[in-house]
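Slide 14.
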Amino acid sequence: VRALSPHPPWCKFKGKPSLHLHQLTVGVPKEVFLDERRVALSPAGVQALIKQGFNVVVEAGAGDASKFPDEMYVQAGAAIRDAKDVLASDVLVKVRAPLVNEIELMKESATLFSFVYPAQNPELLELLAQKKATVLAMDQVPRVTIAQGFDALSSMANISGYKAVVLAANSFGRFFTGQITAAGKVPPAKVLIIGGGVAGLAAAGTARAMGAIVRGFDTRAAALEQFKSLGAEPLEVDFKESGEGQGGYAKEMSPEFIEAEMKLFAKQCLDVDILISTALIPGGFLYNYLYLLPTGVFVGGYGAALQAGYNIEQMMYLGSGLCCVGALAGLSNQKTARLGNALGMMGVLLAQMSVAMAVGGTAGLGIAKRIQISDLPQLVAAFHSLVGLAAVLTCVAEYMIEYPHFATDPAANFIKIVAYMGTFIGGVTFSGSLVAYGKLQGTLSSAPLALPGRHAINATLMAASVAGMIPYMMDPSYLTGITCLGSVSALSAIMGVTLTAAIGGADMPVVITVLNSYSGWALCAEGFLLNNNLLTIVGALIGSSGAILSYIMCVAMNRSLTNVILGGYGTSSTGSGKPMEITGTHTEVNVDQTVEMIKDAQSIIITPGYGLCAAKAQYPIAELVKMLSEAGKQVRFGVHPVAGRMPGQLNVLLAEAGVPYDIVLEMEEINDDFKETDLVMVIGANDTVNSASQEDPNSIIAGMPVLEVWKAKQVVVMKRSLGVGYAAVDNPIFYKPNTAMLLGDAKKTCDALAAKVRESHDQ
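Slide 15: predicted structure.
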């Protein structure tokens, strides 16, 4: 509205006006919309209109939120009035469209300047028509040269784009620009902007000025060029279709283009830190409430079935069980893992129809949100302890409830046996999981606790637990039964501590899978006691799959499951002689030399270990892999089955960082390719790439399948030092002629490598 005063078509009349300007009053009401801080007219605008001859009245407090107190309006020549007087003005200027009660107070045949959005507000236009108002919708001013002075929409969009970046920066919590300090290096933020209009370009310019890496997407070629001119990376889909519409606006694209667009967005969202969307479709509606129809049909059908006397609860349990079976099948392959997760959530959700589960789910969600991906092993161990504790409490409680039936129903004795076994398994799971959590978290030493006579202690605890079943089954008294259950709870808890404490950190992946199996069998016992088919099915699936996975991982280490559980040392192939003495001198390289090796190599394999997890170096590695792939190099990952601290931990970390599934291969899939590989980069791995397993028959890891990285043309090992791994075995590959050591923190080193490669990539 400030533009009206100097603009000839609006403020200079060639003929005799029906009213002189000093007879017209312009009203500036206070914006009452929630959190609206703008005001339609500033004191400078008031002064310009008064100079033209208008009378201006401003509602008390109208400019307070915009830092324009009433005194400034008075000094500019305006009069301060209440809302009723202001709304009765000849000309009203407002930011937001007037509300119904405001329209009722408007003068008949008044003129209104405001953002009206007529296509979305037909009822509002009807009310204004009844008042015979003349309305200029500022949002409908055409984008032509003569109307540029009235283009309030573009100016607001410019502010929106700027404000979006400022708000994002405030919530992001990290610097937008990259930082290199004595404490470490922080990569720049990555910002994706969808829509290259006024708001999108303003956001791109602001984000670039703050040092972020900016990417922009628009359906119009001209908008992509503008993104590029601002220093942003323009993104395009693999689908040729022009998005140019009338008046400089973008048109609505075809379904095929939108599908390709969504795939691009999904890929980018895995990589960027901040997403700003400025694209609008005028008049577009989303009928999300239609998703309620299936729910209504289901709930209504369920109610009708209950009224007719049908019982479909067991069908729900069957459906839940089938979904859980399907979840395991889906999770067996990375490509179907999302479907597996969805089926698992659906299966469990069907059974979680209670307030208690809702409370537990809320608590679990709160804990999970605070946990980083690298801390998943600790989280799994902690949750296993809860499963074990729940099994103990359930078995004891079920014994207390069913006790009156034991004397009268001989078949109930089987329930007594299941309750006793469930208590034993639950106790071992509870205490063993707590010890595993302590070792993984670092609150307990990861070294094995070699108690004197530990095998005799474990055998005694096991014998006492078995012997406790004799009085438990023979004596029908309540006191004897509760005493025996309490005793086996204590004995099994002690046994869980002695067993798990004797296992070293290198065997923690197997411990996690064994405890997972224990928790499954404990859950199976709970399901049997509670007559819950879903718990029994899920428990059996978890127990059996955990046992199978434990066996597979032991085979990968050339160890027996008994050897691991009892804290054994060495493999089944370890000889009795003295281990081979390693001699020689290692070769060290720096980041620049490593980058030159990367440039010269066409085939690269990266073998990550727990060091990558601990340093959280997956993000710079993912960025490095992306740049190398774009440069035409073949880059793959080789992952050992027991790498990390739980099965699949490295696969999850790499997937989280955006590494494509199809380039992450298992040991059996990639071991034969090392001899044809130009460069292998070992990041934070030691025992899983130790050649002593094949070269030294007396080594404690003799016969253990490992990634044969030393067969490559060149190997770069990235570690903090030349120290040994969890198996405490020296690694001969450090001293081989084709191996170079790049010593230092994995994340800092990977950041430096990515930065150097990025410089070459940009050039």
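Speaker note: The chain has five domains: 2-150, 153-277, 316-370, 373-565, 591-762.
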